[in-house]
Design brief:
about 450 residues; mainly alpha; Growth Hormone, Chain: A
């Protein structure tokens, strides 16, 4: 505390409960995540119908799934760096406009190559939106609850897929597959004015810019303006590019382990998301049940993210997130068992989502706490971008294996092993990364953590 009794900006945010304004900002970021989740997974909802109506082989959809994810990879990396340079808000708005506009144009695609192009451009915007909403949420959340709040905000992503899956199950038979993309474009464009007016620039980013007037206005909306000492001192800038900074200052091991975890977890996530409807449809299940399988996966992810996140805050990420990935691998392997009834498939997909996808979402939240404000959007964007490499590999590799005649049990068994690998990387993050560089660590002497304090 300053002699005048005033507080610095960090103390105000970290030392108080969330104001109504902060809650509103976080909820709107969750709404963006929900729209993003719906649009990202829209292609999986309609793939069986496009395959049928265009009379193409299912294996041809591997590149279609991969194109959107490649766009997301590039978008997350580019928009993450732009967010650290120009601000989280303008880059977020640009990303929303991009994916909404291309989603509206997607129904005009008349061939697989055209659909690949549309999904790539949509992916640029969808991937580009994620670093912005994660960074804004993180930078309006108090440190003590940052990981939990970010994880809960990110629940909007699978929630959008759940709602989209249920809606698509009704829309596709009644209105055709194009209606899913039209809805995915109209909704964000209608919501864009609200996002622009209400979602603010990150208050911590404004502090880096020294924008005292705007900081004061935002603190007034939080009811905290009179507590502020008026100082907006930019932190010491990191030398070199923001990408290079991810590997300096003791960050290298944590960066690589976060990348490896997200690579494995997004590989298994997008394999399941994209191929559950196709595999279920090939097994003779109706299209409604095939789509609801993806909805069950995402519903499990929402419940799992909340529970795993709370337990991880209490007992440490390695002790909770790692075993969740491992147990999720068993649920994924069970999904490939032959002769599953529809209720059994939905139960297995729910548990896979609860454990493996829920753990993956908590890993995304850890990224936000691992990096400082000056490189947070870059760190989040590059972590998600590297993870998207796994997301590309998953569905494309799945398409190649299905085209080669590999049975479903083998496909899901291998995916289960990948979930186990993600758990091992999280465990290594807790054991090998010094306390000062672990997510949400408070200031502490440098060096490895004592055994009883490892996460």
């Amino acid at each position: 505390m300053e002699p005048s009794g005033k507080l610095d900006l960090e103390s105000i945010i970290d030392g108080n409960s969330l104001s109504r304004f902060q809650i509103t900002v976080i909820l709107l970021c969750a709404l963006v995540a929900m729209i993003d989740g719906f649009d990202t997974q829209a292609i999986a909802f309609v793939a069986p119908e496009i395959i049928r109506s265009w009379s193409v082989d299912a294996s041809a959809f591997g590149p279609v799934f991969g194109a959107g994810l490649l766009g997301g990879l590039i978008g997350a990396m580019i928009f993450g760096v732009l967010g650290d340079r120009f601000g989280r808000k303008p880059t977020l708005m640009l990303a929303i406009i991009l994916f909404a506009a291309v989603s509206l144009a997607t129904p005009w695609a008349a061939s697989i190559p055209q659909l690949i192009g549309a999904r790539f451009l949509t992916g640029l915007g969808l991937g580009g939106a994620l670093p912005g909403i994660v960074a804004i949420t993180s930078e309006y959340a108090p440190r003590r609850a940052r990981a939990t709040i970010v994880a809960m905000m990110f629940c909007g992503f699978p929630l959008g897929a759940v709602v989209g899956g249920i809606a698509s199950a009704k829309m596709v038979p009644a209105l055709g597959w194009a209606s899913v993309f039209i809805a995915g474009g109209i909704i964000p464009l209608v919501m864009l004015p609200l996002f622009w007016i209400v979602i603010p620039e990150s208050i911590r980013f404004l502090s880096r810019r020294g924008d005292r007037a705007e900081i004061g206005r935002l603190l007034s909306r939080m009811g905290r303006a009179l507590e502020w000492d008026g100082i907006a001192e930019p932190p010491k800038a990191e030398e070199g590019s923001p990408i290079t900074a991810l590997f300096t200052g003791g960050r290298a091991a944590g960066t690589l382990l976060l990348w490896a975890t997200l690579f494995c977890s997004l590989l298994l996530s997008y394999f399941l998301i994209n191929w559950i409807p196709v595999v279920a449809r090939a097994a003779g299940m109706p299209i409604e049940s095939a789509i609801l399988g993806v909805a069950a996966l995402n519903l499990g992810a929402i419940v799992g993210c909340i529970l795993i996140g709370r337990l991880a805050d209490r007992f440490g990420p390695a002790r909770i997130i790692g075993p969740s990935f491992a147990l999720g691998g068993l649920a994924i392997a069970a999904m490939g068992s032959g002769g599953l009834t529809i209720p059994a498939l939905l139960a297995a997909t729910f548990m896979a989502g609860f454990l493996s996808i829920g753990a993956q979402m908590c890993t995304v939240a850890l990224c936000s706490g691992f990096y400082e404000t000056s490189m947070r959007a870059t760190g989040i964007g590059w972590s998600i971008g590297i993870g998207r490499i796994g997301a590309i590999v998953g569905p494309v590799f799945g398409g190649l294996l299905i085209g080669a005649g590999v049975v479903a049990s083998s496909l899901f068994a291998v995916t289960g092993l990948i979930s186990l690998g993600a758990g091992l990387f999280v465990f290594a993050l807790g054991w090998l990364v010094p306390a000062t560089r672990r997510p949400n660590a408070q200031t502490a002497p440098a060096g490895p953590m004592p055994a009883q304090g490892r996460a």
